[in-house]
Amino acid sequence: xxxxxxxxxxxxxxxxxxxxxxxxxxxxxxxxxxxxxxxxxxxxxxxxxxxxxxxxxxxxxxxxxxxxxxxxxxxxxxxxxxxxxxxxxxxxxxxxxxxxxxxxxxxxxxxxxxxxxxxxxxxxxxxxxxxxxxxxxxxxxxxxxxxxxxxxxxxxxxxxxxxxxxxxxxxxxxxxxxxxxxxxxxxxxxxxxxxxxxxxxxxxxxxxxxxxxxxxxxxxxxxxxxxxxxxxxxxxxxxxxxxxxxxxxxxxxxxxxxxxxxxxxxxxxxxxxxxxxxxxxxxxxxxxxxxxxxxxxxxxxxxxxxxxxxxxxxxxxxxxxxxxxxxxxxxxxxxxxxxxxxxxxxxxxxxxxxxxxxxxxxxxxxxxxxxxxxxxxxxxxxxxxxxxxxxxxxxxxxxxxxxxxxxxxxxxxxxxxxxxxxxxxxxxxxxxxxxxxxxxxxxxxxxxxxxxxxxxxxxxxxxxxxx
Length: 467
Prior knowledge:
The protein is α+β, with helices and mostly antiparallel strands. It has 16 helices and 18 strands. The protein has helices spanning 9-15, 55-68, 120-129, 145-151, 158-161, 196-200, 234-239, 241-246, 259-269, 291-307, 319-330, 332-338, 355-369, 395-415, 431-437, 440-453; strands at 24-26, 48-51, 72-75, 92-95, 102-106, 111-114, 132-133, 168-174, 180-184, 209-216, 218-219, 223-231, 253-258, 280-288, 314-316, 343-346, 373-378, 383-389. Helix 9 (259-269) packs across helix 12 (332-338) and helix 13 (355-369) packs antiparallel against helix 14.
């Protein structure tokens, strides 16, 4: 590959012919926030940020970048955790946050067409006010739907409803050479050749730029009830998950947490959790149209939990009680972050039956390496979020400890038949671990797909599977 062209003032003037100058950030105008994502330690400033407002602008920008061999990095809200939206080769950052409009609610086909910059919190508010429901529920509500599609985000409701890919009917995309294309559509079924839509979902902006999405909606459940279930040990809590899954009443969410993370959240929020005395907890949510219907679901699940050793069953059947619990759960990441100087994350997914084995391994690893690791996650689908904390280590010690800890954790996940990422993606930070976890042939196929979509490798270079 020949070296990428650095954006100069002539490029700025050329781009300003089709994107308003006041939506271009150039040189010192580029804010510090554009140099990293939510967790990236390193800083990579783009030469220029283009705040696009239309598919036409994206297409013209991609065409210009292709003709001039300029690296281009798509970016939404920048809430990612693996460096996927960081401009490693500087160049152009394509900011989609102004493309934030709802375009069509089709109540006949139960679909919503919207632009990629719509925030998850805006999406939830829009559809729920109209009696509809978009099930994927990642913890970061200020993320954009485009970013969620790019990582195939999951979240807490995945155990019952699935992940983002299951709710994308169609996409409008712009290819690296500026070609605009629609993949998928409103039709429910499609067996017409390779599914290019599903190739784009989860590709982290390396294959195309998403400019519109058609989402599948469901009718909004009228009621929800949450159960907070304390257990003497995490092994007992995780042991309750398989029989819960096998029961006829599948919860909307099954989360696991340990006492120390709850304490962090209490300190961060300045409010008490309903219970913080047990070593481990399951947090479950059920939905339905009436409280009686939901009670018929959770009665059996509560009995399963008690049979597995639960100390109690705390029922949150009002909005106020449930909010106290879920607000604390939603604050776990920020609470952990505020308790240390720096951190990095391992977002592995293992078979549900292996969650306790992995968490017990983390407990032992903390003692072996001498570093704090905080962990919580989705017990229903085996997706763990483990955060390695720097605390008072100097930079040299931190890099050494971080590398050793991650190597051991990813090796353990592979031994448990797990995968590198359950929902946060690979980006720049985790691509080495992806290559270790997959056959060389599989990586070569991924790289071949990248080559077909982006032969000049200008679109989000050095991410996922590219060196």
